[in-house]
UniProtKB/TrEMBL annotation:
Residues 11-143 form the Actin-like protein N-terminal domain. This is ParM/StbA family protein. Pfam families: ALP_N. It comes from the Bacteria.
């Protein structure tokens, strides 16, 4: 986290697979209850309701402000980040992001959604929290992850941010983003998971647990029969081919451009792709985008924009 005067800047990456802050990561999902549930390890109590954080899988929605879920998950993310320094009460500036081509059209609504309560109190992990929300800034996904060193890039670079819900592609020339060359597609890693489910059912007439699928996609292996593993690997390899097919459709040339891969999709390319690794850089830090949002917000505030 970064601090500006008496305000703490909290960068939050609202992914469909995981919520990330600069120092924390947890599954994007929750279950709401009207009374206290049996298991309370990740329990957040807000506005008279009980929420188990990290449960289930958040369904993909194109506008993250359409329901209550991402607001509650935002409270949990702030609490988790502040708990790393045992802070329970603070002035907060939220720095978040949206897919590249959606940012300009949705940032006002998403900012208002996150800013709707300037004073907010809740309980998480049986600890009471109280925040004053000083402001919100929304930045483009993908770019944020490389923002701290973007100005040092030379030549033509392609930033591919492959998250759980979307794939965002941004062209940069000599460190400068090209606003006319950015693309967002609903081709995140969850699309690969869905394809694995379908192929596995067709070929075996059995279901494969999503946690096993995720393990294979992340590591390339799992404690399952070789024949089952082969099905997952084949689908994953085709998904990676789809990534590069889409990149080429947007003008990517591996011989003359350098590719920077951020987001969870990087592990799929490494595990299942046949690529020229000398011209590809993988951002290994899953929290890179959240840190980038903090960096951009700090630059903005130091320049006198905001607050």
């Amino acid at each position: 986290m970064k601090k500006f005067n008496n305000t703490i800047i909290i960068g939050i990456d609202h992914g469909y697979g995981n919520m990330k802050t600069a120092n924390c990561c947890f599954p994007t999902g929750l279950i709401a209850y009207n009374c206290e549930p049996l298991f309370t390890k990740e329990l957040l109590v807000y506005n008279g309701k009980y929420y188990l954080i990290g449960e289930e899988h958040k369904e993909y929605i194109s506008h993250k402000s359409l329901d209550e879920d991402f607001y509650v998950l935002t409270l949990a993310a702030i609490a988790k980040e502040l708990s790393t320094e045992s802070i329970t009460e603070a002035n907060i500036y939220i720095a978040a992001g949206l897919p590249l081509t959606w940012t300009s059209g949705q940032k006002a609504d998403f900012s208002a959604y996150l800013m709707r309560n300037k004073e907010v109190s809740f309980t998480f992990h049986k600890q009471e929290y109280h925040f004053h929300i000083e402001g919100v800034s929304i930045y483009p996904q993908g770019y944020a992850a490389i923002a701290p060193y973007a100005s040092k890039l030379t030549g033509v670079n392609i930033i591919a941010d492959i998250g759980n819900g979307t794939m965002n592609v941004l062209y940069m020339v000599n460190g400068k983003p090209k606003s006319g060359k950015m693309f967002t597609e609903k081709f995140g890693t969850y699309q690969c998971t869905l394809a694995v489910r379908e192929a596995f059912m067709q070929q075996t007439q059995r279901e494969l647990n999503d946690h096993i699928i995720e393990e294979v996609l992340r590591t390339g292996k799992a404690d399952i029969p070789k024949s089952d593993l082969a099905i997952v690997k084949a689908v994953a390899a085709e998904y990676v081919n789809g990534i590069f097919r889409r990149l080429r459709e947007h003008g990517y040339d591996e011989n003359t451009m350098r590719l920077w891969v951020t987001g969870g999709g990087g592990c799929l390319i490494k595990n299942f792709g046949k690529v020229n690794s000398k011209r590809i850089t993988f951002e290994e830090d899953i929290c890179a985008a959240a840190k980038g949002y903090e960096y951009l917000a700090n630059v903005q505030l130091l320049a006198g924009i905001g607050l």
